[in-house]
Amino acid sequence: MNSKRGIDRYSTFGLRDEWLPSIFLWEEKWTERNNLGPIQVKAVESWLEGAGLIIRKRVTPLFRRIRDIYFMKPESAWQIIWTELYHGSPAVRIFCDRVGFDEYLGKDEITGILKDEEPNLTESTLKNPVSAILNMFEHSHLGKLVTFRGKGRGRPIKRIHLNDPDPHVVAYCLYRLSEELETEKIKINDLLTGEVPGCPLKVFGLEEKPLKRFLEELEDYGLLNIAEEVIYLKKIPSTEVLETYITSLKTFNTERPDLNPDEIRLREKLRDSLMENPERLFGERIHDLYHFIRGASLRELITVCATADGGLTSERFKGPGSSIPLLLLLRIDDIDFKINFNDLRNVIVICPDVALSGERFELLLDHLTLAETRDGGEHRRIAERIIATLIGDMMQSGFRWYLNGESGGGDMLYGVSEMINSELSRRIFPFGPENIPEIRGNRNLWKIGKDYPNVFKIFFLSRTLDEFRRKSTKGLFRFLSYLLRDTNGKWIVDDDLNLKNGTYHPVKAMVEVTVDRLSKKENVDIVEELRFLLEPPYGLKGDMIGHAVVSFILRTLRGHITRNGSILKDVELMEIKKEILERWKDQLQLI
């Protein structure tokens, strides 16, 4: 634990929620099929190893159990991962054991706490895992373990007492604790005082009153016994607790309750409302559903859920043309869809194989109604389990897709973002950057938010190909240089960075169309004129790629763009580039 490699394995990257669908899809092959940078890949591997999800680059039985739970109860899945990280990541263990709940702490203060535990390591070494943990809080469901103060990167955090995890998460925490201590007996007082490592108080901040309530529930579940203030756990592995949890998530009373006449009338209104807008059927879980589908998509997805036509056209999906509209068709009781696909140009339509059966839908309506009209705790819990089961089954089912007169299928709905990146997006944007494998393969190039001045220096100010090559040999610039290469890695420009003839390439197409459009007009507002590059078939946006392509286009137009009769200088063109990309960025943020 005192070795640098044991604690500093993550660079500054935490495990992120958006990466999990892809990881669950590809399993061991994920390291070859992701679109992250090499440093991020190593960090993710280290997190997965620490969480016990992979061992020697092979997925474990725990991996598959976490996957099953994740699509039904993502928060619980992350809490189980956090429990595992306590036992497998020295940095997380120190954080849980030594960081209290009373005050906000910044990165430097948390680093100091780790330094007290690891005095032989430098602060610069310890800052990496601290940054990685804070990054994980910002980009996953583990953010509910802390509260943030202020905005932006590096903002202070304060741990909070998580008093409402699922009882099975608490049970799993206790069983992992017993495995580490090699005993099935745990004193309740030790849990309340935090005297034992890895107890719910250390890991989640679980306080006395809720802890005792959970222990009573778990005793009712048959997962433990309590006698004389001592917990006696069953002689089963912790993974069996997860099997019990998965079964419980899919188990509920299927006998339909009785409703009075007023409740029946309310129920029918609810049916009409849900059929008209099925997003309401999922409640807050609609955000999880859309998140699973979005996954690691390189482009923004504008997602709508529907059961039938309802006047759906391409106009329903608002947003800049660089985003991808996606219609999720929910099947209820095998009702035939009444969707006119011809009205949905450049809209991806996804139809999961799993349907909500008529019988299950009626049961759901019963309990949603009674949750509103009676003391609805139990009815709400049953409704939530029906929805959780539906989402879990949908995500792990096959699906059909429809797009611009074409159709096909996929094996797992949670892998749809991978299909969008590699295949479907290219049908909408045949001249977009996703058609260049090296550009598609690094999602860091697709991030919006920076000005990227060095990109302008490389793609606009380089005078020769040799100069361009010297400036683009390291980091993300090495990947970005493929904007000027063909699929064989050969340059599509000559020694003076002029585009070669007879070459098919997305960037070449964008440059040529731009030059052609501007050559036919006088008194051009170039900021407004380049707006067409946002739309299909190009789909540029205000990311690193957009900055590079616009810079190269402006380089091509250098000496031909005038304002008030004068040819614009390089510094003026740089400001125009900023204005173009800022306008694109603003339009994307309107979604």
What's the topology here?
Blueprint: H1 4-7, H2 20-26, H3 30-33, H4 38-50, E1 54-55, E2 58-59, H5 61-70, H6 74-88, H7 90-98, H8 107-117, H9 123-138, E3 146-148, E4 157-159, H10 167-181, E5 185-187, H11 188-193, H12 200-204, H13 208-221, E6 224-227, E7 230-233, H14 238-249, H15 261-276, H16 279-282, H17 285-294, E8 301-306, E9 324-329, E10 348-352, H18 358-373, H19 377-395, E11 399-403, E12 406-410, H20 416-428, H21 437-440, H22 453-459, H23 465-471, H24 475-480, H25 506-519, H26 526-529, H27 544-557, E13 562-563, E14 566-567, H28 570-588
Parallel strand pairs: 8-9, 9-10
Antiparallel strand pairs: 1-2, 3-4, 5-7, 6-7, 10-11, 11-12, 13-14
Q: Which structural class fits the helix and strand makeup?
A: alpha+beta
Strand tally, please?
Answer: 14
**Ends: how far apart?**
46 Å
Rg is: 27 Å
Name the beta content range.
Answer: 5-15%
